[in-house]
Design brief:
- This protein has 99 residues and is mainly α.
- It has four helices and no strands.
- It has helices at 11-30, 39-58, 65-81, 86-91.
- α1 (11-30) crosses α2.
């Protein structure tokens, strides 16, 4: 047995994280939100987005370069959407509409 930890990361983790970031970004850009979330939900969502970006950077060796950059831009875009306005801050979506 070796004293060094294994550097191999499961492909399910690598591709699952990229699919989460890209899919979440597309969802929040293309689908309008219909209600505001509570304060704790907003901060929890931001924390999950930040942790997903940190995790993506940590496992970047197991992901093709192009896919890594696309997922990183999508992750940063998730945080940038919240700076679009008051409704975007509370919903995390680019558009907001009342049904």
């Amino acid at each position: 047995m070796s004293d060094q930890p294994s550097k191999a990361t499961s492909p399910i983790v690598c591709y699952g994280l990229t699919v989460y970031l890209i899919g979440s970004f597309l969802w929040r850009v293309l689908i309008p939100a219909h209600e505001y979330a509570g304060t704790s939900t907003v901060y929890l969502g931001i924390a999950v987005d930040v942790l997903a970006i940190v995790g993506l950077i940590a496992i970047r060796a197991g992901i093709p370069k192009a896919l890594f950059w696309i997922a990183l831009v999508a992750g940063i875009g998730l945080l940038a959407i919240r700076l679009n306005g008051d409704a975007s801050w509370w919903t995390g979506h680019l558009m907001y509409s009342v049904r």
